[in-house]
Amino acid sequence: MLKNLYSGVAGLALVASVAAAEDVEVLHWWTAGGEAAALNVLKDDLQGQGIGWVDMPVAGGGGEAAMTTLRARVTAGDAPTAVQMLGFDIKDWAAEDVLGNLNEVAEAEGWDKVVPEALQYFSKDDGNWIAAPVNVHSTNWVWISKSALDATGLDAPQSWEELIAVLDAMKANGITPLAHGGQAWQDATIFDAVVLSLGDDFYTASMIDLDPDALGGDTMVEAFERMAKLRSYVDDNFSGRDWNLASSMVINGEAGMQMMGDWAKGEFLRADMTPGEDFVCIRFPGTQGAVTFNSDQFVMFDVADGDAAQLAMAKAVMDPAFQSAFNVVKGSVPARTDVPNDAFDGCGKKGMADLAEAGSNGRLFGSMAHGHSVPASVKNAIYDVVTAHFNGEYDAATAAEELVNAVEFAQ
Ligand code: BGC
Fold first, then answer.
1. How far is the CA of 298 from the centre of ligand 1 (A)?
2. Are residues 233 and 309 in the same domain?
3. How confident is the model at residue 25 (pLDDT cuts 50, 70, 90)?
4. Is the pLDDT of residue 22 over 90?
């Protein structure tokens, strides 16, 4: 459904409660090196405009821990001013009637015309702007060490079979073929790409429409078989590993590739690696031309004395020059369609072109793993099954059956 909406294209909690009116307290999960570098671009930009920053970082890729902290803060009557949030979480909070309204700045700045409708679907509630999108990430990427690829004598893989050939060759060369961290959201990130590699219609039917026939059918069994095959290329110490440590394994030559959203590029850049020379970015084989996206948006909570600073932050986040500067560092692409690609590297330019192409061809889909295809309750049910299977608790056929049950129960 989302595809049709697209047109064109640590813990300073103590100081939080004393934040001055001209400050924003920002709850986020950007704590890895590349993420923090991007965050600094935002902090500096705001500080330059006289908006003070009270930091509320909650570590944990994918933001689950941050969302738990947020719930506790809101329940205690102490909502932060601005919160990094993904897709359906924004809709869930909007339904609780606790968010601020950004219409004043959105109208003055013409957001309606420049923000793709696929993002507006999440940024607006009942026609009102409630969030400012800072980027568009996508999850169906593979980040490959150039030297490890060259050592295989093979080209970057275009199909599942070619991917397996490259992984086998890397194994034969004595490195860990696939760098991965065993955390549910990371398993789910690979699952996004594997499901999409089995067809746009299959992704739509299973991850967006939650059709039980697709969730439990033969193609889903094949998806789980592919997941098990990928698991066989991961090292034994993967459990609980953070995603950025998996990126480091590729960076330092210990591993051949990582299947991860484009925030991984931020880690490669921080390590002074150059796309095309030191690492290669490709779409997950079999998903070329299609994109599973997620967008980080800043949601403003309805807090006393926050308004002016919140509107100023929202305006700053949506500024075209800022969107370019921030996303160049973050690994994502701008959340507006009118930002030039000049400052972006090869992977960034590809990301922007892929997004526009997928949008105009009806091949842009919300990422399940990152909260853009189904609400968190269903997402978490899918996570549980994908992770249990990845850790060998279910065979592929049982996993597909369990998926049907888990999704039905969660709805
Ligand atoms: C967010 C990214 C973040 C990544 C890892 C994703 O859900 O959209 O901004 O870098 O999680 O923490």
1. 13
2. no
3. very high
4. no
The enclosing domain of 319 has a CATH number of 3.40.190.10
pTM equals 0.94
Q: Whose CA is nearest to atom 11 of ligand 1?
A: 62
pLDDT, tens digit, 9 for 90 and up, residues 331-372: 999 999 999 999 999 999 999 999 999 999 999 999 999 999
35 CA: nearest ligand 1 atom: 10
Q: 128-129 and 131-133 as β-strands: parallel, antiparallel, unpaired?
A: unpaired
Distance (angstroms) between ligand 1 centre and the Cα of 89 equals 14
Q: Which atom of ligand 1 is nearest to the CA of 294?
A: 8
Give the nearest ligand 1 atom to 295 CA.
Answer: 8
Nearest CA to ligand 1 atom 9: 296
Tell me which residue has its CA closest to atom 12 in ligand 1. 61
Q: What is the pLDDT of the chain when averaged over all its residues?
A: 94
Query: Is the shortest distance between the CB of 86 and ligand 1 below 6 Å?
Result: yes
pLDDT at 338: 97
The domain containing residue 221 runs over which residues? Answer: 139-292+355-410
Which of 332, 351, 370 delimits the end of a domain? 351
> Which residue minimizes the CA distance to atom 7 of ligand 1?
62
What is the count of structural domains for the chain?
Answer: 2
Which atom of ligand 1 lies at the shortest distance from residue 371's CA?
7
Ligand 1 close to Cβ of residue 62 (< 6 A): yes
Amino acid of residue 382: I
Residue 250 and residue 377 in one domain? yes
